[in-house]
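Exam review. A common question shows you a sequence with its structure tokens and asks you to describe the fold in words. Practice with the pair below. Do the first one on your own.
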Amino acid sequence: MKEFVKAYLGKIIPVACNLVTEEGCVKLGEGEPEFTITIHSMPSKTDLMTSTSLALGEAYMRGDIEVDRDLYEVLDLFMGHMDQFTTNHSHLKKLLFTSSSKKNQKKEVTSHYDIGNDFYRLWLDQTMSYSCAYFKSETDTLTQAQINKVDHILEKLQLQQGMSLLDIGCGWGFLLIEAAKKYKVNGVGITLSEEQYKKFTERIKENHLENQLTVKLMDYRELGESGLSFDRVVSVGMIEHVGRDQYKEFMEQVEKVLKPKGLFLLHYISALKEYPGDPWIKRYIFPGGVIPSLREIINLLPDYHFYTLDVESLRRHYNKTLLCWRKNYNANKDKVISMFGEEFYRMWDLYLASCASTFDNGVIDLHQILMSKGVNNDLPMVRTV
């Protein structure tokens, strides 16, 4: 078994490292070892051949695998070689391809976001923003970078007083609150998360914005029949939960509620190519989550009369955001363990570290696409942000 694991890990880890098992220590690769992997309980060959990420991820969660260097630093050395991971798509079909029905998608979304506001408050910044921040300078704090991100989006949307703004997947509401305060717009946010709905409702009252903002527990597929219409639409980190078979439906719903010449900004985690997703992430972190490629979203836009105005990558900003979150998370390790246990703590640390490394290695990206519904010749000809 040791020889199999040695060959298996040697294929996916492109740098030299030591491997310690009950049978002793061996070196993988050429050169000075970068770190040491200690395996207390060996994953089965069947599990490894079914899914690299599931087998190694679950072993790490249980404490069966440990490394002697910071987890992010270790993962960053080889996550760029995820194309060498094994995934048995036939065996994992039910995990990789889940139902996109309203009932199931609500269940999947709430399983992540309704862990509890107390949990997210431990490691998010004071704005409670759970999406890529925007670091305009090296000295920006996470809070400042999240404010920068919202300002960046709102500037792109070219808001004016009295306009209406829809936020699809509004989270805890910081973007809409800023839009209402700074631009005097009227906004509606929709979410499937009960926890986010409750917190956003509280924040609207705290900021005395009841006459400007509304939050609704609503599936995006209900927008077209809602009778609502908007000058601007934004969606931040939500389309990743929609599912590949529902991208057309998503675009159709936005088209139905966006006024002619209106602007739509889509901010989302993207991939270079289309793939069904990582098995470990889908089982433990984001059930049903799928990362769209940039090209498949761009390709859809003309069918809904959307004109692409601007595309921007914030990939390195998300790497830095995740590292900030992980620093906050690990600073609250004891609290997380007291709330959910050691295995949960290790699971989320692995999630944050692995995502940061995949952004750093370009496995995934973050794009903002700005588009107009139909031709809009009233916009400035010069890019301002």
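Now try the second one, then compare your answer with the model answer below.
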Amino acid sequence: MANLRHLLKDTAIYGLSSIVGRFLNYLLVPLYTHCMPTSSGDYGISTNVYAYVALILVILTFGMETTLFRFGSDEKARPDTVFSTSFALVAALSLAFLALVAGFITPISEALGYEAHHSYLLMMAAVVCMDAMQAIPFSYLRLRKQPIRFASLKLLFIVLNIALNCLYFLVLHKTQVYYIFLVNLWCTAFVSLLFLPMLFRIRWRVDWRLLRRMLSYSWPLLVLGIAGILNQTADKVIFPLVYPDKQEAQVQLGIYGACVKIAMIMAMITQAFRYAYEPIVFAKQRDKDAKEYYASAMKFFLIFTLLAFLCVVGYMPLLKHIIGAGYREGLRVVPIVMGAEIMMGVYFNLSFWYKLIDRTIYGAWFSAAGCLVLFAVNIWGIPRYGYMACAWGGFAGYGVAMVLSYIVGQRKNPIRYPLRSMAVYTLLALVLFLCMQYTAKSLTTPWQLCLNTGLILAFALYIVREALPLRRR
């Protein structure tokens, strides 16, 4: 139980930077959706460009974040050597990417449909280059168990980002998507400068033999990461390419992108859990009770994500005001996207069996299978059903990857997950969600909020009674 308490504490600290930061970023959603009209399609452009950024960031980091934990946790390893070797690789890839974009900006812009906006792509290429290089120092802080410093730097970026956005959009009355990208560039550059003292303190040594071992471990993680990020962003990349009306595509993508922001509270919880859990998993793998610990962590992850799901859908009459009125028609995607995020979190928990036995190729296959399902649903469904196909495509893709990882994992490295109790929690949450949906049209907003609060409290009380008294275990 001491390890679970340590996990809870670190998750809370990492969650401060993730959840509080994302909440503060929510303040930007009404700012953007009120300042940029739905018809302009500018928010759709932002959604589309950031989807490409997320994909490129995964490629440039080359799986080195998890690889840093794997080799840095080795008792015989020198952490500074592991850090400098991984950083050298990521820095080389990132700078080469930036040079490539700058050298071929015209054909790249034309291919992506931004021939009149070269500056958008140049700014975001610089941002993704710096973000990729920052990923290694941030991972090193997690490896060295420095969550407060990690959280402080993350929050600093967010506060500065919000301040500059308010300056441009509220004070200077700028309404173009150009200024979203410009602010991101300034903030990312500032945080990069703050890492310089840390980089100067490192004893730099690139170990080429170690690099070969790290690459052997990381390249399946790269494939896994690409497939995983495509599960999150492919719909936003594909949408303008397959939707019949190109201008309307940006409008619809803006609506979808704005509504997905509300569902991203699940991604915050998963990310906070991942930041705390990943280093612990590798450190604990030699303990006798490791598998029991992994099973308990999975159960509590599912419990609290289901509680978060009910809170979001239950208070949707209030949360919907985060986005502008012109974007609210897309709110029906929120429960679907949140369900997909829960399955993604479960898949992340399941993924450690192949990471711990150095068979990361399995993760690449599982994620690739999920990605193929997502592509198929989106390509077939977007022309017919618009952004609803995007939501269901992600749900189906994560579901396939999760099921495959569980089935194969139970054969290769079996863990006795408490499936019965996990199923009960899931079924109970589903029943409560359906009650909320069924009564939504017949009740006024105050009564609906009262009923939903009661249902959420009932679920919370069930958790307290069945799962939380850890002292008895």
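Model answer, second protein: The radius of gyration is 22 Å. The CA atoms of residues 237 and 424 lie 37 Å apart. Full marks require stating both points clearly.
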